[in-house]
TrEMBL record:
Name this protein carries in UniProt: ABC-type quaternary amine transporter
Occurrences of domain ABC transporter (ranges): 2-237
Cited PROSITE patterns: ABC_TRANSPORTER_1, ABC_TRANSPORTER_2
Organism: Yimella lutea
PANTHER family tied to this protein: OSMOPROTECTANT IMPORT ATP-BINDING PROTEIN OSMV
Length: 378
């Protein structure tokens, strides 16, 4: 557990970057620090590895005051990842990844083996090892940055906007891989981002900070969406927070409709025989491929003829994906698949809404609401 107690950091008399911060980042969990530009996120993060020293207050890691630990020793147990990976441009990927083990005096073969192992772990197979950072895409550089931080297997990882310099699709993929990795590694992670969606997706806990370096609220994403402590947090977590909170509640087993289907490659006659409505679902080996309007079929069904705009939800997955599947489907019948991606059936939006009505909201924690904020809640 990383604990901040009444931590202040001021740069000169008037510039208070972090103001009496009390914060706990539990062991083995991801704690996201989020807030507007200049609210003190990076300063908070850098105080954990003593790149910045607090003006007052105490920071402990597993009850050990970090002020009592020499900075180099402290940093051996803390991986650090920054935007763009922060790689050394004149070193190969393998050399970059081996930086900390080399500082720790590991022998060459051990460094090489471990570096290859962590590169594999972040999805960069062998032939990337001898490249230079400039020969990598932004997403690959970020992966190397994560591999480098993991090389000496530190229990704590500090990540400062590690995925914000890549395009949204790559970012999404990096986030998914990061969550999978954390599932295996159970590191204690403090993750800075200005992107509330990223914080909500990655954080077990999310700490929302205000300009002036004060903590506005810290809670699970689900709790923050249901009970923002004041207007600032409510605005920050977003106007569509009611809808977004559905991401954190799983769907029940819906009474699914059995959907008539036709195989990809089917003839006009087969398609027309299969349908009883305007839209027909096309499958391949039981897996949904897209919808088609039977009236428009002039030849055997090919992938290019399919409407692919609708989303697909996994059975028992978040209510948000089930509702989205129904809302985005051209037939208004949302596709639900099993864990192997095979069609389980379809569901209508009103069935999902009924399930939402039957779901309990997250209970408010009475200790959580400061009296001066009680009226600000919505
Ligand atoms: N070395 C410094 N000297 C003076 N002021 C600083 C220094 N570092 C940070 N600050 C100030 O402290 C405040 C907090 O900065 P910090 O970088 O921690 O914010 P942030 O939330 O990470 O911002 P961003 O999202 O824009 O990166 C800002 O007002 C900043 O100008």
């Amino acid at each position: 557990m990383i604990r901040f107690e009444q931590v202040v950091k001021s740069f000169g008399d008037k510039n208070i970057a972090v103001d009496h911060l009390d914060l706990e980042a539990p062991t083995g969990q991801i704690t996201c620090l989020v807030g507007p530009s200049g609210c003190g996120k990076t300063t908070t993060l850098r105080m954990i590895n003593r790149m910045i020293e607090p003006t007052s207050g105490t920071i402990t890691i597993d009850d050990r005051n970090i002020a009592d630990v020499a900075a180099p020793e402290l940093r051996r147990g803390i991986g650090y990842v920054i935007q763009h990976g922060g790689l050394f441009p004149h070193q190969t990927v393998l050399e970059n990844v081996g930086t900390v083990p080399k500082l720790l005096g590991w022998d060459k073969q051990k460094i090489r083996n471990r570096s290859r192992e962590v590169l594999e772990l972040v999805g960069l197979p062998g032939d990337f090892a001898d490249r230079y950072p400039s020969q990598l895409s932004g997403g690959q550089q970020q992966r190397v940055g994560v591999a480098r931080a993991l090389a000496a297997d530190p229990p704590v990882m500090l990540m400062d906007e590690p995925f914000s310099a890549v395009d949204p699709m790559v970012r999404d993929q990096l986030q998914d891989e990061f969550l999978r990795l954390q599932d295996e590694l159970d590191k204690t992670i403090v993750f800075v981002t200005h992107d509330i969606d990223e914080a909500m997706k990655l954080g077990d806990n999310v700490a929302v900070m205000r300009v002036g370096g004060k903590l506005a609220q810290m809670a699970s994403p689900e709790y923050l969406l249901a009970h923002p402590i004041d207007d600032f947090v409510a605005d920050f977590v977003g106007r569509d927070r009611g809808y977004r909170s559905l991401s954190f509640q799983n769907s029940p087993r819906f009474p699914l409709m059995s959907e008539p289907t036709v195989e990809l490659g089917a003839t006009v006659e087969q398609a027309r025989a299969a349908t009883n409505g305007r839209w027909l679902l096309v499958v391949e080996d039981g897996k949904p491929q897209g919808w088609i309007e039977p009236a428009r079929i002039q030849s055997a069904i090919e992938p290019s003829m399919l409407h692919r705009g609708g989303t697909v939800a996994r059975s028992g997955g978040p209510l948000r994906t089930s509702l989205d599947a129904a809302l985005s489907s051209p037939s208004r019948r949302g596709i639900i698949v099993d864990d192997d991606g095979r069609l389980a059936g379809t569901v209508r939006a009103y069935e999902v809404l009924r399930a939402i009505e039957e779901t309990d909201r997250v209970e408010v924690d009475p200790d959580d609401v400061a009296p001066e904020h009680a009226n600000g809640r919505t």
